[in-house]
Amino acid sequence: MFWKKKRNQRAEPDTPAKTIGGLFHQLKSNPDFIHFNHRSDTFTCWISFFHTLIDINFVHRDVLSFLYDRRVSSLNDAVRVLPMEKVIRTKDLTEIQAKLLDGYIIVQEKESSSECLLIPATKNHGRQVTEAETETSILGSHESLVESIEININLIRKRIPIPQLAIEEMRVGKISNTRVCLLSIDGVTNKENLNTIRQRIQSLEVTNLLDVAQLAILINDNGHSLFPQFLDTERPDRIASAIYEGKIAILVDGAPAALLLPTTIVEFFSAFDDYLVSWPIASAYRLLRLFAIAFSVTSSSFYVAILTFHYQLIPKELMSTLYTSRNSVPYDPIIEVLLLEIMIELLREAGARLPTKVGQTIGIVGGIVIGTASVQAGITSNVLLIIVAMSALAAFITPNYRMATTIRFIRFPFILSAQVLGLLGIALCYMLFVCHLIKLTSLGRPYIEPIFPLRVSDLKDAYIRLPYNNQTMRPLFLRTRDPGRARPKRVQAKKGKHKSDIDE
Amino acid sequence: MRKKHNSTQILIPIFCSLFFLSGCVPTYIFDDIMIIEGIGYDYIGNGKIIGTITTPNFVQGTGSGGSQSTGVPANGPMVRTLSAKTYDGKSLIDKFQAEGQMGLQGGKTRLMIYNKAMAKHGLLRQLSFRNRDPDLPRDMNLAVVEGNCREILTSNDYQAQMSVTQYIQNLIQDNSRQNYPETDLAKFLYAYYGAYMDPFMPLIRKQGDHLELRGLAIFKKDRYVMSIPNKKVFLFKMLFQKFNQGVYDMQYAHGKHIALRNVHTAISYYVRNGNSATPDIYAKVKVIGQVRQATPKAISKRTSQSVAKLFEKSLTYNAKALVHQFQKKGVDPLQLGDQVRSFTYHFDGASWPDRYPNAHFHCQVSVNIQQTGISN
């Protein structure tokens, strides 16, 4: 239809400037746009820039002082004199506009002349590299990504000092033109994966892109799924190790996190610390996390199912405890469970949105005061309070925040199905989720890979982490071009003869 | 042409029916039902029985949690016991429903007890009714009572601070970890329905303010025929299953006792001439034990070999006597018939009941005393 068509065409900003004069006219009303005529004895020029985007000290010290030099009498002279390695000379209006908004200075001979000198003077004003906040760790590097993509690339390049580290830059967003970088290692990363992700990013039709999580949602395989299909991390050491493994990392300018892809579900439950402690400990903690998640998802639904339908399953020693705590509660188990679960959900949301100092108070008020009060008022039972609090705790064991949110969310379908059909309902709900997970892919690769399809060699670094000398191969899942990580013969070579030191 | 459905077209009706039909599923919310813990049957003749049920009174006797901390007056089940006359076979639960203020549910029944008259009358109807009900647990304990079930279940003068049912169940279960063979509904029904074997139950009675195990009640099919006393239960269990932690007390001279606690007992059977008129059943028992109680100077490390010989003699003699007793009554709680069957090609099952009393039971017990305790 005609109006629709028109609306679609207007995705580009209004009335793009046709000439450089028009561009300046458009920008003149902005208070931070500076456009002035510089005259010296030998050279007259127009200088324009956004003073909010450029490093003003740098301009005064290293640009203007050279332009005011006596030797300069034309743009050619200026290029020769300026102490910069990359001064662009162009007539292309789109480039001029883009560079101006990236923090370049424009120098023209006449105000209306289309030939411009573009001098980079970008101000890198951003957060310092700080400690990781969402993925804190006790061992290992404490650096975390920041909002500036240059610093982020710097952090990663420092960890991968090889020429094969390939960085591919793209622009996403019709208006925002956000910089997006793909990082991979030539000769290791699977080409097919790289092509898929490149094609997905290039064919994106969005006006603006502000965060890497937004990109993840835009390019994932199944947009309706509750499960995150790409791993987001803010730890440069984790990114580097993933790239070494043969994964692709995506950085977005302005986002303090990177996407690692393709990913399997087990990676959401492994923390980077796992690689820094000895393998039995790492394996034990991974299994602990696994059980915690199973507990978190099913505990309150089991409570509902057993208390509503299957009183036969209550252990006889537990009966009197359960009875006395349930006794004064006027509601059915389902109402009681929903009440408490929603209360904990409210607490979490309030704690996350409020300023840090108030947030802690809310935790105490909610957790202790409301919890005890609701039990004493006879609205919920003691036992349930323990179950719900423990399952909330268990959900946060997940190292990845987005996965933790998913885990907390999928509890509700389980609770409702437990109320509808009891244990059978839980089983049906479980089946539904398993079917969904089996179908799910990440960049076209199976999402629950080491289990289905079963690839035994990848199980070495899934639920348990075997020692490094057993992990001589890169994950089969990634289909890397160089599957070997280390020479097995050398890694598993026998140690030299032990010289006993104890016997005197 | 077949129309292709997409997944939403299939899923939406499923979810709708689940949602709207979920009200049709009966719920048994744990604290809105009366849970039956124990059932007792007293036979009063003429095809009538008195049935008694107990429900747990959780509020009584639970110290922690519960009523004090919530500040709300606790209201447990009001009725603790119910009893009524009924013709046997009819479900007691249905009979009592009119008297319970909440729905009565039998899914956590732990105990069923029968008085001797009931057991002699035959449990056929009770058993087939219990077996048919899938709601009942199969690991509940059964027992025959000397005296009156109703009295046992309703009296208030026990020393134990727990419910009677729990008391009886603990009594049976703890003892079956020692001298008594393991019994529950599943094992009883196995022996009842199985060929060439007969079931048994523990026998209890109320003695003043406590309960005690009297021995084992032996059934022929569903009818009680005999009992074996408490002191012979060790022999029974020794011939019946592998076990440990039982105690056998031997009087080797007048007023002189040695008690053997077994740490391991294994039984193996061997059968010859299984189809003949007089089959030979060989039982080989190996007992490893410790002496923990003995008359002073009855045993030391030096004399332990000779004491073991005494034990062997006593055990062999008494085991043989026990089996003879069973053979005389024509009951087979030790499942010897099943052993014979398993050792015999083309076993002649039809004539077995006639041949069983004539079978020769050979028993060989070897006792190994490993510790005699601190004697110096």
TrEMBL record, chain A:
Keyword Cell membrane attributed: no
Entry annotated with the keyword Transmembrane helix: yes
Listed name of the protein: Spore germination protein
Ranges of Basic residues composition bias in the record: 486-498
InterPro entries, per the entry: Spore_Ger (IPR004995), UPF0353/GerABKA_families (IPR050768)
Residue ranges, annotated region (Disordered): 485-504
Segments crossing the lipid bilayer: 287-309, 383-401, 413-433
Similarity section: Belongs to the GerABKA family.
Keywords in alphabetical order: Membrane, Transmembrane, Transmembrane helix
From TrEMBL, chain B:
Main location: membrane
Bilayer disposition of the protein: Lipid-anchor
Residues of the Spore germination GerAC-like C-terminal domain: 215-373
Pfam hit, one: Spore_GerAC
UniProt entry keywords in alphabetical sequence: Germination, Lipoprotein, Membrane, Palmitate, Signal
Domain Spore germination protein N-terminal: 31-205
Compartment(s): Membrane
Recorded family membership: Belongs to the GerABKC lipoprotein family.
Name under which the protein is recorded: Ger(X)C family spore germination protein
Taxonomic lineage: Bacteria, Bacillati, Bacillota, Bacilli, Bacillales
